[in-house]
Amino acid sequence: RKEVEQDPGPFNVPEGATVAFNCTYSNSASQSFFWYRQDCRKEPKLLMSVYSSGNEDGRFTAQLNRASQYISLLIRDSKLSDSATYLCVVTTGNTGKLIFGQGTTLQVKP
Amino acid sequence: GAVVSQHPSWVICKSGTSVKIECRSLDFQATTMFWYRQFPKQSLMLMATSNEGSKATYEQGVEKDKFLINHASLTLSTLTVTSAHPEDSSFYICSATEDSPFNQPQHFGDGTRLSIL
Do A100 and B45 touch (CB under 8 A)? Predict the structure, then answer.
């Protein structure tokens, strides 16, 4: 079983749609949780950290459920520029090692 | 913000060649640097963690004699792919952190696309 699993995608949505991505992780000792965004042939960029209380940044909302070992990302009012691959990332221990999910591809269409 | 520069951005070379990739932190001292590899349509996989002045820690399945990592200064780490073969063709990305709790946040370089013919 992969340490971090994501929806396979791709997600094809119209502009303005709301889309949700899910992610599960296998190690209950995981400590930190993130969503990264990766554009084609580019490096990943931190989108937001994920906290147990849930957090929001503009049109993006992230949720963490430690009991279920589940992370989600909600994107409201999708823009064309949101088209990218979204990576669910966790860390375990104090080494800072990032464990990446396979990523879910989002394509927002006009 | 923290900037990490990676060079070269793209390499094409013949099988058997050794290739060196540089990762530099431009405006901060990177006590820890990470090297990742990403094959097409797959996730980034950590190859090794390097701390300045000490030997790198390699992940299981990564050959340390094939992927030589040097982190001789607080602003530079290098990854050398020795005797590269077509199966080593991949996207190599480094990240760097300052001396911060749990090595977060990590600042990523813009990656090196390696193609071995």
Answer: yes
